[in-house]
């Protein structure tokens, strides 16, 4: 697509946000480019002997319209041979500068450039989940080991050193290696380094890292037998806190932390005893809207702390924003430090080390186990297919996974009511 011709003024260009290329109708060869994410830069284009030459003139933030026009006019006024000679000189100078710059580029600097690029081209939003996960792994595991080493000199041996302290966490090792590979592939494409990717599992690195025996590790949960006592303890110690209410709400509704933390009052219908969750608030958004039946005891509990003019999020911080996952999830750790010894006994025995329960494990895994617990008779009382629907999982059956409200909602309400009553069974008034 060709460049769009619009009237260039400093003020109009500052307000311009649509991605694309724009040509100055006054100055021959001067263009403004707007990339995804909104970054703007100047460039000059001129044809000599049927060959196009293009030269960057700097970012819009640093070079204003008058300066860009002055440089572009000067370049256009040069005789063809002088113009080509100028372009070649600039290329050679830039190549030398790039070579000098790249020879002293550390991995820390390279990964920051990689972050900036992802945000600029729109792959990430500033501090979105992908951005934060990447920076977290870099900060905690990668940069302390190779951050200050020159990227051009890094070897597979350096990468292997990163894995040693976290070898008992296969998923973390693999994610770190993947992030390092991404930084190297991008750096090589940008000519910041030339060597083979030292984090390539199929290269030298495979001879330095033994194959890991992947032990399936689920998120820590509470046994079905311990659940009522656990729930009563969390309620007694933390219900006065917003995060405590959110924790209990997630357990009672068998929902994920993020889904519960982003619950809004307009989604809650206490008269119909329903929580209507839109797809975008759910991990499996492709499965559509989830309607969570609220048991009578859950509705009565919510009424004890619902504000008179309730609006916005059910569980918000002082700024009206949803609580962070860590604020809610840490309650189990706080409870354990207070003298309660909550552990996932099954996983602790399997892995040979103590595994603490998690909110996700209690709200989801314990619920799923409870739904088919034979000591409570639930294996005969409830259909496992209904439990999967309560968890918003895709169910392949004669309905081909379809959600049929009249068929399933009554049975889901029966199950969610029994679950809530079981959770409250050790709570003293």
Automatic annotation (TrEMBL):
Gene3D superfamilies: 1.10.150.130, Integrase, DNA-binding domain (3.30.160.390), Intergrase catalytic core (1.10.443.10)
GO biological process: DNA integration; DNA recombination
Keywords assigned: DNA integration, DNA recombination, DNA-binding
Domain Tyr recombinase positions: 226-333
All copies of domain Integrase DNA-binding, residue ranges: 9-75
UniProt GO MF annotations: DNA binding
Classification via InterPro entries: DNA_brk_join_enz (IPR011010), Integrase-like_cat_sf (IPR013762), Integrase_catalytic (IPR002104), Integrase_DNA-bd_sf (IPR038488), Integrase_DNA_bind_dom (IPR025166), Integrase_recombinase_N (IPR010998), Phage_int_M (IPR053876), Phage_Integrase (IPR050808)
Sequence ranges assigned to domain Phage integrase central in this UniProt record: 121-203
Protein family according to the UniProt entry: Belongs to the 'phage' integrase family.
Name of the protein in question: Integrase
Organism: Turicimonas muris
């Amino acid at each position: 697509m060709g460049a769009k011709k619009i009237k260039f003024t400093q003020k109009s260009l500052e307000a311009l946000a649509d991605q694309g290329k724009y040509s100055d109708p006054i100055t021959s060869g001067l263009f403004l480019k707007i990339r995804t994410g909104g970054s703007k830069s100047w460039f000059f284009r001129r044809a000599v002997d049927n060959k196009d030459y293009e030269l960057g003139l700097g970012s819009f933030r640093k070079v204003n319209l008058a300066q860009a026009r002055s440089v572009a006019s000067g370049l256009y006024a040069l005789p063809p041979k002088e113009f080509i000679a100028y372009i070649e000189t600039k290329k050679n100078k830039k190549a030398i500068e790039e070579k000098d710059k790249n020879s002293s580029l550390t991995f820390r600097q390279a990964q920051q450039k990689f972050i900036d690029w992802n945000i600029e081209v729109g792959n990430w939003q500033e501090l979105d989940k992908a951005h934060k996960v990447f920076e977290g792994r870099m900060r905690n595991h990668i940069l302390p080991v190779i951050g200050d080493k020159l990227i051009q000199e890094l070897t597979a041996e350096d990468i292997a050193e990163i894995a040693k302290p976290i070898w008992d966490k296969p998923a973390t090792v693999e994610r770190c290696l993947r992030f390092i590979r991404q930084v190297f592939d991008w750096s090589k494409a940008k000519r910041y380094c030339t060597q083979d990717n030292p984090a390539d599992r199929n290269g030298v690195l495979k001879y330095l890292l033994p194959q890991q025996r992947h032990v399936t590790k689920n998120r820590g949960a509470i046994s079905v037998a311990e659940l009522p006592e656990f729930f009563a303890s969390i309620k007694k110690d933390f219900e006065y806190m917003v995060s405590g209410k959110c924790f209990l709400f997630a357990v009672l509704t068998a929902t994920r932390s993020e889904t519960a933390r982003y619950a809004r009052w307009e989604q809650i219908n206490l008269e119909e005893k329903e929580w209507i969750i839109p797809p975008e608030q759910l991990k499996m958004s492709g499965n559509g809207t989830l309607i969570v039946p609220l048991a009578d005891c859950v509705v009565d509990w919510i009424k004890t702390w619902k504000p008179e003019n309730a609006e916005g999020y059910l569980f918000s911080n002082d700024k009206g924003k949803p609580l962070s996952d860590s604020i809610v999830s840490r309650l189990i750790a706080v409870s354990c430090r207070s003298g309660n010894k909550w552990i996932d006994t099954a996983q602790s025995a399997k892995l040979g080390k103590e595994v603490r329960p998690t909110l996700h494990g209690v709200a989801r895994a314990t619920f799923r186990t409870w739904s088919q617990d034979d000591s409570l008779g639930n294996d005969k009382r409830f259909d496992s297919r209904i439990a999967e629907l309560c968890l918003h999982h895709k169910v392949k059956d004669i309905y081909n996974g379809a959600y049929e409200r009249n068929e399933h909602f009554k049975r889901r309400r029966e199950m969610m009511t029994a679950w809530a009553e079981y959770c409250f069974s050790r709570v003293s008034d």
